[in-house]
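Page header: ASSEMBLY MODEL / four components / 326 residues total.
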Amino acid sequence: MASISNEPRPLDAVELRAWRGLLRAHGLLVKRLDAELEAEHGLPLTSYEVLVHLADTDGGKMRMCDVAESVLLSRSGLTRLVDRLERDGYVERVSCADDARGAYARLTDAGRAKVEAASTTHLEGIRAHFLAHFSPSELALLAEAWERVAAAAPAPGAPACSA
Amino acid sequence: MASISNEPRPLDAVELRAWRGLLRAHGLLVKRLDAELEAEHGLPLTSYEVLVHLADTDGGKMRMCDVAESVLLSRSGLTRLVDRLERDGYVERVSCADDARGAYARLTDAGRAKVEAASTTHLEGIRAHFLAHFSPSELALLAEAWERVAAAAPAPGAPACSA
DNA sequence: CGTCGATGATTGCGTGTGCAACAATGGCGG
DNA sequence: CCGCCATTGTTGCACACGCAATCATCGACG
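Prediction written out in full:
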């Protein structure tokens, strides 16, 4: 790419639309998907995200800090969130044998049922509100690009606890 | 794996990476840019967004509800945010003559100076962490796509007060 | 001209989240 | 083996935000 000077020239129109569009589209999408999930399943989007990440693993359990990194939450934030999920019976904490400090969040049967039920409508929402606006080749491009972005933006200070 | 019949087919790998990548990239980007802005100018990203939108208008003033819609905040949220910006001397409230209910948020000289100073580093951040990972044609594609997404996801219930 | 529903802005309250502090444990070097 | 620092998870506190209620005002209709 053209070497960028530190000159603060403003963004051109396309750059501006690409950036602000990201902010706006993301905000609208998340708000909408969260509202749908909340309305149809009484489940906030962040809670759903946690359950999905757990469901994607063998045994449906993950270390707390790994979950936190996966959903971009602070450890304290995840503690409270798992408190709520545990109260609702969707996950349970299990201590792990090899590290007495650590704790797993493990999906319960109810939690797995919940996430499967919620997935149905959530996936429809993602398709309708997001995927529908991109061609397959555009999606492939996006998938690649996000990885470039994420790779260049490491989670601050933490290469994750299970690195 | 549980055999589910009425479940819509799950996202394929590309769709999944496109969607989760959006969530993750957005989260990382916003966190990083917010941290930079906070560190170098003591200005949270949301506050900066408000100031920028004001600076983009003639006279540097906007109706409160328009600002709220622009930055995807609730009216109450914006009220508090403008409270803080006013306390810091970056904006001031001015009542408008033609609608006694309404109020403008108007950029002060200090606010304009602040947003210009912050823009310098913020634009660098956007270029370095976001724009740098896309080619010009990809940016053009994104700009278009976000508008399709946003057009299909109207702000719930409100076509904006100054529509 | 008076009334009524709609709209703009603010406030009370509840909630979700991050930061800093803490206790418990792991892992490493002396 | 012991001491020292890093890491994990939790808790206290503060803060930003949304929702619902409220007040003032606008616009329209009879």
